[in-house]
């Protein structure tokens, strides 16, 4: 069965965005893009909340076609255009969306079906950013892991990653990686009883 993994940049004090959704504190560079690109390239499915999906959809379909496109833009745009996309939203409809499924109710049931539908793949399904969608998955105990990129900053306030947790969640650390820009990757899986 496939796993649902939250892929998130996070501040040292646990925030994924500033109070108004600011993400200008996130450090990314070619080293991080190359590292992340290898793992993303192994999968075929991305899960988003509506806001993140709309942001991604406004940029990635044509990002690789621009004359000044970076290596990362070309590679990720190619992956994005081929990937299956799943959006958690109460307001979106999936009519006329290319290779995109919208889940608006029965979250636990739909996520279990998604985990079992492999399309020949066994790779993780990555939740990109999307704090509201991640919170919904956390509250239903549907996440199987956290792929966190801890940025060397303390925000003091903002949108927290961990909210709505009812019971203790035990994690097992799989890998860590320190990047030259000061970001540290922490890759955890949830240890189920």
From TrEMBL:
<dbReference type="GO" id="GO:0008703">
    <property type="term" value="F:5-amino-6-(5-phosphoribosylamino)uracil reductase activity"/>
</dbReference>
<dbReference type="Pfam" id="PF01872">
    <property type="entry name" value="RibD_C"/>
</dbReference>
<dbReference type="GO" id="GO:0009231">
    <property type="term" value="P:riboflavin biosynthetic process"/>
</dbReference>
<dbReference type="InterPro" id="IPR002734">
    <property type="entry name" value="RibDG_C"/>
</dbReference>
<protein>
    <submittedName>
        <fullName>Dihydrofolate reductase family protein</fullName>
    </submittedName>
</protein>
<dbReference type="InterPro" id="IPR024072">
    <property type="entry name" value="DHFR-like_dom_sf"/>
</dbReference>
<feature type="domain" description="Bacterial bifunctional deaminase-reductase C-terminal">
    <location>
        <begin position="2"/>
        <end position="183"/>
    </location>
</feature>
<dbReference type="InterPro" id="IPR050765">
    <property type="entry name" value="Riboflavin_Biosynth_HTPR"/>
</dbReference>
